[in-house]
Write a structure and sequence with these properties.
The complex is a heterodimer of chains A (265) and B (465).
Chain A lengths: L2 H19 L3 E4 L4 H13 L8 E4 L6 H13 L4 E4 L2 H5 L7 H20 L3 E3 L16 E4 L27 E4 L7 H11 L13 E2 L12 E2 L5 H10 L12 H12 L4
Chain B lengths: L1 H5 L3 E6 L4 H9 L4 H10 L2 E3 L7 H10 L3 H4 L6 E2 L6 E2 L11 H7 L4 E4 L12 E4 L7 H4 E2 L3 H7 L8 H6 L1 H25 L4 E6 L1 H14 L5 H22 L5 E4 L3 E4 L2 E4 H7 L22 E4 L3 E4 L15 H14 L10 E6 H4 L13 H5 L3 H4 L4 E5 L3 E4 L8 E2 L5 E4 L3 E6 L14 H7 L20
Parallel strand pairs in B: 1-8, 1-9, 5-6, 5-8, 11-16
Antiparallel strand pairs in B: 2-19, 3-4, 6-7, 9-19, 10-18, 11-17, 12-13, 13-15, 14-15
Helix pairs in contact in B: 2-3, 3-12, 10-11, 10-12, 11-12
Classes of the chains: A alpha/beta (265), B alpha/beta (465).
């Protein structure tokens, strides 16, 4: 079996396993290439009819192309689209001027609101191990407590791909069907399956987005990759990190607060 | 005795930001009797720090034995390459091997705790616990399993600086707790680990100096004694350390000195008022400048960048004007005066090529300014000019503020010339000593060959300014 077939069948297995185990499952769809690939796999797993909602956490600051894509494809794919915003924070004027608090309010807090409102006990997320250092420690089935804390030292072992889908009460489970995929696998799969993705990923005037989120926190990278083949080619030779164009990580928030208190900001 | 020779060990205890002058005073006044006893036997001397004089740069230079042009840590905040965005340098962005790694390669067992610029901890043959910027104990510790022990003693990565601004008494209690758990962990690991090189860092001294220096100098009835009580606590731990390690080579030193703040200087505001920088319409961080209208901008402390065409994404100064712009910038900076006293604020402005040198050049080779300006990589991240203030004028940022000079809760600031060094059982360079010179003799003492491009000898030392 070729590598993509292997990844695909394992992801579908994980998705079906999750659906079998959890009563209130949802998939997080950020409209990016990874979660869109996940949506594609979910559709394959259930032969085109997705039996649980697609949850979109809307910061209200996403690229217009992303909203257009979301609305078009949720219709075409027949998704039960659930959109959640942290209206309270938005009404209070939360913008990326306070960049670092902004992500917490509009993403993390908004997700808590969605979980509380809809009672989801498990979420499918399209994260990949190669995206970011700390994600290397993730498991396919990863329990979170009510405060969303992830104790990576106290995770059920997953030896020989025996996934631990059982969890204690009072937690929600994050399920990561794409954990073992690389950025390159995703592009090769998008190409093979002809999965629609937003135009932001393709180069215009020498720039393209390699990772997308809010307009305010994403910078394009220099690239002439206008097709998926160009992109695959580019990835096979690049040394910069995928999230190089993303402005911040949670850790920067901590660092910034610390340095501010010490008078270094 | 032969074992000691074949298995040399070395212990470092660093105390952040304690000036030579203050250390001598505290030894004379009986605040630090154990230090006085040690220094009475082996002497105490002054040591130079780094430019700019901030802990992360000083400790990166110590742990790599290299100048910032080679390790790439120029401050607590920096520019993201080819953008006007901020990034936070740390050990993950430091482009040189640190002393724990060099020793690990030579099969030495190492230990490090809380040394600035050591977070995130790199993989070593031993244990490395990262510095005050580590967000959690789990992330601070390599191997991660050590966090279990650290949690069990309620180890503190750092004292809470926000507390210091709100409530000085609470700050003191917090500093004590942080120091106590640090020392508890130090004695635990000294005993439990088999080590060849052991380095523990105390950060609280820098904090107490920042927030209580003036009260100490002015003999505040409550806070001056509290200030010295903190140093007594450190000295007590040193006493216990000297008892436990009566004859192992030992270095106790600081990374920079301290003095009273006369004024904090919002240097970015000065650049705005002199027409060099035009802020962006919305100021969200220190690099919110309008590139089309800014010939230069700065980062803390005193790091000034020319908005150079072909190098910065929105650069407007052509390379042929680089020297002229730097000259005029330097002139303007040197004109800055304290309106209250009429004193000059900036003592000297140095050009990047005169204070830093890159890895891939001969030590003696001088660099043409234009070549330096367009240099890529680690060296290329340096500021184009470094403004060195007179002691008392603390160079800060404040693009959005309306005042150039101001006073805040901060009472003390770093000084360059006045770090201290007490060395037992290890030979250090005789006359001039700067912090980047320490790695060589340490490696030498442990019988490990320093990397070829390590500085700190010959002409690879920083000129005095």
């Amino acid at each position: 079996m070729d590598k993509l077939d292997e990844l695909e069948s394992q992801s579908i297995y994980i998705i079906r396993e999750a659906y079998y185990h959890y009563k209130k499952l949802a998939m997080l769809w950020s409209i990016g290439k990874d979660s869109s690939t996940m949506v594609w796999l979910v559709r394959k797993a259930f032969f085109g009819k997705v039996p649980f909602p697609a949850l979109h956490i809307d910061t209200s600051y996403k690229f217009p192309q992303m909203y257009k894509f979301r609305d078009e494809y949720s219709r075409k794919w027949g998704l039960d689209l659930v959109i959640t915003r942290n209206e309270k924070a938005l009404a209070a004027g939360m913008t990326c001027k306070k960049k670092l608090e902004c992500c917490t309010a509009l993403k993390t807090e908004a997700l808590k609101i969605a979980i509380a409102k809809h009672g989801f006990d498990a979420l499918l997320l399209g994260i990949r191990r190669d995206e970011h250092g700390i994600r290397a420690k993730e498991r396919v089935f990863s329990p979170r407590d009510e405060e969303f804390k992830w104790n990576y030292q106290d995770q059920p072992p997953e030896l020989w791909d025996q996934f631990k889908s059982q969890a204690e009460e009072q937690t929600h489970i994050r399920v990561h069907p794409l954990l073992g995929w690389t950025e390159l696998d995703i592009w090769k799969y998008i190409k093979r399956e002809q999965i629609p993705i937003t135009e932001l990923y393709f180069a215009k005037n020498g720039k393209r987005y390699r990772s997308i989120g809010c307009t305010t926190c994403c910078n394009p990278v220099d690239s002439n990759a206008a097709t998926i083949d160009d992109m695959i080619n580019e990835l096979e030779t690049t040394t910069t990190s995928e999230r190089a164009g993303r402005a911040q990580d949670k850790e920067d928030t901590y660092t910034m607060q610390k340095l501010r208190a010490l008078g270094y900001m | 005795m032969t074992t000691a020779k074949h298995n040399p060990k070395l212990m470092v205890l660093s105390i952040d930001g304690v000036p030579f002058a203050l250390m001598r005073r505290m030894m004379d006044d009986g605040v630090m009797p154990n230090m006085a006893g040690l220094a009475g036997n082996v002497g105490i001397r002054q040591m130079r720090s780094v430019q700019p004089t901030v802990s992360c740069v000083a400790w990166a230079s110590y742990m790599t034995g290299k100048n910032p042009g080679k390790h790439g840590i120029y401050g607590f905040i920096d520019r993201r390459t080819e953008s006007y965005d901020l990034m936070f340098p740390n050990s993950a962005t430091m482009s040189a091997e640190n002393i724990w790694e060099v020793l690990s390669r030579a099969d030495k067992r190492v230990f490090g705790m809380n040394v600035p610029s050591s977070y995130p901890p790199r993989r070593v043959n031993g244990i490395l616990i990262g510095d005050f910027l580590a967000p959690t104990i789990e992330k601070a510790a390599y191997p991660a399993g050590e966090s279990e022990y650290l949690r069990s003693i309620d180890y503190r990565i750092d004292s809470d600086a926000q507390l210091a601004r709100r409530d000085k008494r609470a700050m003191l209690a917090d500093l004590d707790k942080t120091l106590d758990t640090r020392m508890e962990a130090m004695f635990h690991y000294l005993d439990k680990e088999s080590w060849d090189f052991f380095h523990t860092h105390i950060m609280g001294s820098d904090r107490i100096n920042h927030f209580l220096w003036q009260k100490m100098e002015d003999n505040d009835p409550e806070f001056a004694p509290a200030f010295f009580a903190y140093y007594r606590r450190i000295d007590k731990a040193i006493g216990r350390l000297l008892e436990q390690l009566p004859d192992i080579p030992l270095l106790i030193f600081s990374d920079h000195g301290f003095c009273r703040i006369k004024q904090e200087v919002q240097l970015s505001r000065y650049l705005v008022e002199t027409g060099w920088t035009t802020p962006a319409q919305e100021i969200v961080h220190p690099l919110s400048v309008d590139p089309a209208k800014s010939k230069a901008y700065c980062l803390i402390p005193g790091r000034i960048y020319v908005n150079l065409l072909g190098r910065e994404p929105g650069g407007i100064v052509p390379l042929e004007k680089y020297q002229q712009v730097r000259k005029r910038l330097a002139e303007d900076l040197l004109k800055l005066r304290d309106p209250e006293t009429g004193e000059n604020v900036i003592k000297k402005v140095v050009m990047r090529e005169n204070v830093y040198w890159p890895s891939d050049r001969e030590k003696n080779a001088t660099m043409e300014p234009e070549q330096s300006a367009m240099y890529k990589g680690t060296y290329g991240k340096a500021a184009d000019l470094i403004a060195i203030p007179y002691d008392g004028y603390d160079l800060k940022l404040g693009l959005a503020g309306n005042k150039i000079l101001q006073k805040t809760e901060l009472e003390g600031m770093h000084t360059y010339d006045d770090a201290f060094m007490v060395a037992r059982g290890i030979e250090l360079p005789k006359d001039d000593l700067e912090i980047l010179m320490l790695a060589r003799p340490i490696l030498d003492k442990l019988g490990v060959e320093p990397p070829n491009d390590m500085d700190g000898t010959g002409s690879a030392i920083t000129p005095r300014f």
